[in-house]
């Protein structure tokens, strides 16, 4: 299978991340698709890959966090609710 960037042999089965229907959206699906591709590249190349995802809406970050929690990818969230203490 070919991905959006034209790369061949992308394992699309790994995209089956459990997501509740409430939090499923084309934005989250697209972000997860891209993160999974990067993770597969990391496994092929043996190099660590990190990504930053920015959003103005905390609800988008909430939904992405729930989706990432259902995957085997590690993530950290930084938003306006963090304190310096």
UniProtKB/TrEMBL annotation:
State the SUPFAM superfamilies in the record.
P-loop containing nucleoside triphosphate hydrolases (SSF52540)
Full protein name: Uncharacterized protein
- Organism expressing this protein natively: Stereocaulon virgatum
